[in-house]
Design a protein that fits this description.
heterodimer; A: 256 residues; mainly alpha; globular; B: 245 residues; alpha/beta; Rossmann fold; six-stranded mixed beta sheet; 9 strands; 38% helix
């Protein structure tokens, strides 16, 4: 995009949102009963304000943020290491493949109640659910990245007499970064979903807990307030992931 | 170092590519292989670099020799700068690890790449990438050097400069060179022997001994020599004849 187009986009991007808010606010003012079903922007705004002041919203946000982020990190690190590691051993891959596919495609959230039973109702069980919901995406993506490495580059390393370990460090791992990064981006959503489901099943804090309680009270504005904070959480995680890519590439060239 | 190929045959999927090819490259010697495209020239280099095994025959290289192979495609790693690409072979072979920086800078300035050390391959021209690929192999100090069309993307003046440098390198390190090329002029200027291969399956059609056409194998002086034209005609006649077959 050229700079004129960027300006145009920045100018017009908020318009659909503002139009929606305006329509929504006007409609709920005209017919207050609609607020019961749809909430209203001004009530959502009020919740945002009062719950930020009394500290409960930042606390719920922080709880979910920590659960999702820890699960995100754990799932991605373990998944990426195992996925890249499978490149190393064809035998291990052959043995692991059906299990990976079976577990990766199973609706892991069905296991959420089990994990709460095993790991308790505290934060740890949510971190585990977020980990489980991210680990297979990271594993499959990084394995695909490693197996997509250019055959010519592998031959090149062979001409230098490179060992399998050197080939892995110099070529396979760095060339998989694109795939690993796409796993990270997908997993932002999965990590938040994992933490959220965990809180939905059993919790005493977090945005999932807030939404669960609010929907029990039919307080739609508070539910939407929680949903809004989940989006903010996703934005924050996306931002960090975006910062990671060039650093990861530099790291691979410098230290591997 | 030297290399000797004895009755090499190789087939891929039932298709004969090389049939009973034999020749020898001695210390500080250069053999060029020319022939129709797709006739198995690159296959020979792949066998010599041990990327593939011959079906019959053997390629003997002294065990202490360091084989360097510059493939036709530069194959630079897109996430490394040109400079970092050039050190890839060095990082793997771990030769002269501590003092490679001055040598690296020297190569980059000699090969007209001084200002391009920090750029990435996607911003580099084909010729630049080809030069980096050459540096990447030369930095590992090969004593047997296999070159597959290493000058194909270079401007004429840069090409002559690099050929001059290669000859110096070869004389200093007593390197045996096998050059695969479609450029007869390069073959004559750099070689002691030019081997003309026939079309598939490639067999050796003719071996032409090149008596030094210029003092110190200077690539510019070589091209000015009257004997150069004679060799050119002889080789050209062989190749032309192949195309008409």
């Amino acid at each position: 995009m050229n700079s004129a187009q960027v300006k145009f986009v920045n100018l017009y991007r908020p318009i659909p949102l503002l139009a929606l808010l305006l329509f929504w606010e006007l409609a709920t003012r005209r017919d207050p009963s609609l607020t019961f079903f749809f909430g209203s922007p001004n009530k959502i705004g009020a919740y945002l304000f009062t719950r930020t002041i009394d500290g409960s919203l930042p606390r719920d946000f922080a709880v979910t943020f920590v659960e999702a982020t820890l699960g995100f990190i754990l799932g991605n690190v373990v998944g990426t290491i195992v996925g890249l590691g499978l490149w190393y051993s064809k035998l291990a891959l052959a043995i692991a493949k059906p299990y990976v596919i079976a577990l990766g495609s199973a609706p892991l959230f069905a296991f959420a109640p089990l994990l709460v039973i095993w790991f308790g109702t505290g934060m740890f069980s949510k971190v585990m659910i977020a980990t489980l919901s991210t680990v297979f995406v990271a594993l499959l993506q990084s394995y695909t990245g490693a197996s997509e490495v250019s055959n010519d580059h592998l031959r090149l390393m062979k001409t230098f007499g490179a060992t399998q370990g050197q080939t892995f460090r110099k070529v396979v791992a760095p060339s998989s970064i694109v795939w690993v990064m796409s796993a990270f981006r997908l997993n932002v959503g999965f990590a938040i979903l994992g933490a959220f489901i965990g809180e939905f099943v059993s919790s005493n804090a977090g945005l999932g807990h807030l939404i669960l309680v609010a929907s029990g009270l039919f307080d739609i504005s508070l539910v939407l307030c929680g949903v809004l904070m989940l989006s903010v959480l996703a934005f924050v995680l996306y931002f960090f992931v975006g910062q990671l890519e060039p650093r990861l590439k530099r790291f691979a060239v410098t230290y591997l | 170092m030297s290399l000797s190929a004895k009755h090499i045959s190789k087939a891929y999927g039932g298709l004969d590519v090389l049939r009973s090819v034999s020749f020898q490259v001695s210390d500080s010697g250069t053999v060029s292989i020319v022939g129709p495209s797709g006739c198995g020239k690159t296959t020979f280099l792949n066998l010599a670099a041990r990327l593939d095994q011959p079906d019959e025959g053997s390629i003997e290289i002294e065990p202490e020799a360091r084989v360097g192979y510059v493939m036709q495609d530069p194959l630079l790693l897109p996430w490394r700068t040109l400079e970092e690409n050039a050190t890839l072979g060095l990082e793997v072979t771990a030769r002269c690890r501590d003092d490679y920086q001055p040598l690296l800078r020297d190569y980059f300035s000699k090969f007209d790449l001084r200002d391009s050390a920090k750029i990435y391959p996607n911003a580099a021209s084909g010729g630049m990438k080809q030069r980096v690929a050459l540096i990447r192999t030369l930095l590992t100090m090969p004593s047997v050097l296999l070159l597959d069309e290493p000058f194909s993307a270079l401007d004429f003046d840069v090409k002559l400069k690099i050929q001059r440098y290669l000859v110096d390198y070869q004389q200093k390190h007593a390197t045996a060179i096998v050059l695969v090329t479609h450029d007869i002029e390069d073959a004559i200027a750099l070689s002691d022997q030019v081997i003309v291969l026939s079309d598939k399956p490639a067999t050796i059609k003719t071996v032409i001994q090149i008596a030094a056409v210029s003092p110190n194998r200077d690539p510019v002086a070589a091209r000015k020599s009257p004997r150069f034209a004679e060799y050119f005609t002889r080789i050209w006649d062989e190749i032309k004849y192949l195309d008409n077959e």
